[in-house]
Amino acid sequence: MTNAPSNETAASDRRFLWPLLAGLLIIGWSSGFVGIRYASEEASVILVLFWRTLLSGLILLPFALMMGPRMRLRSVRDQMVLGVMSVFLYLGGFALAIEQRVPTGLVALIADLLPLAIAALSQPILGEQLTARQWTGTAIAVTGVLIVSFDSLSFGSAPAWAYGLTIGSMLVFAVASVLLRKRRADGMPLHQSLCIHTLTGAALFGICALLQGNVIPPMTQSFAIGMVWLVSIATFATYSVYYTSLRLFPIAKVSAAIYLSPPVTMLWAWAFFSEPLTAAMFVGLAVTIAGVWMTSTV
Questions:
Q1: Whole-angstrom distance between the N-terminal and C-terminal Cα of the chain?
Q2: Mean of the pLDDT values across residues 164-193?
Q3: In the 8-state DSSP scheme, what is residue 183?
Q4: Largest CA distance in the chain
């Protein structure tokens, strides 16, 4: 009986915490475009991803070693597998697809359908069943994403496997997200798991960069700005908020917020690079907000 009030207080605190985390997640998730845009002006996408993950991992490494419980070999191994999935295959798959001439707009659209894949996986793996209201909200949110992305869509002339790679990368991250949610009780602190994920990605991206013939970063202002942005905001802030949210809230609720990243990305592009805004983008934003609200409230 004495635990009931504390449980209700915790639930209330989480309810008020969610709008803050959701806002940070949307801003961080959509902001990766800005860092990539700056950093890739004079470097390949693989080189950018290598330095992004390497710097992130090295910054976190002292804290991972000195703060928190001792990392056991089995836990490190499990986190490395999740790092391969959530960092290397997810980010690297999209990068390779773009290099194979899959149109960027189509890659972004497929990436932004991640919440739909997570919703489909959450019931059989986690037992988190969406209500009819949430499925309706999901359909509305997807419609909003399509409206926002419509003007930038084209199918290009990339090989067929590159389109499959794009879908596969999105599905791999969806599976990794569900597994992270399932393993939230393992107890490894966030900074330790993120350190392992990024260093695992860095090792694999480093091999890819070497195969391309270069791991030396360009010593330019735009690359430095991009790295600071990608490490501090797109990696530390975004992954931390995402992983924390997965531990505290239903996965479908967390992933639904990602539907808002396409319209917010358009606002980033307008603010930083003077890319035009269209009426369709604002219509899509309004539709997406309505869908996310329906999906996130039960």
A1: 26
A2: 78
A3: T
A4: 65
0.90 surpassed by pTM: no
For the stretch 12-38, pLDDT in tens is 556 678 888 888 888 888 777 777 777
The two three-digit tokens of residue 137, written as one number = 């909200």
Contact 281, 145 (CB under 8 A): no
Any domain includes 213: yes
- For 58-62, 113-117, 150-154, which range has the lowest pLDDT when averaged over its residues? 150-154
Higher pLDDT: 127 or 202? It is 202
Tokens standing for 281? 């983008």
Burial class of residue 238 (count of CB atoms within 10 Å of its CB; 0-12, 13-18, 19+): buried
Please count the structural domains in the chain. 1
Record the tokens describing residue 138, joined without a space: 């999901």
Is residue 173 within 8 A of residue 112, CB to CB? The reply is no
Average pLDDT value over all residues in the chain: 79
Q: From residue 103, how far is each of 95, 100, 155, 156, 177 by CA, in Å?
A: 11, 9, 6, 6, 26
Is residue 267 domain-resident?
A: no
174 belongs to a structural domain: yes
- Helix, coil or strand: residue 44: coil
Tokens representing 259?
């539907």
Q: Residue 119 corresponds to which tokens in the numbers above?
A: 């919703």
Distance, C-alpha 24 to centroid of its chain: 12
Residue 171 domain boundaries: 23-130+158-249
7 domain residue, yes or no: no
DSSP 276: P
Is residue 35 within 8 A of residue 223, CB to CB? The reply is no
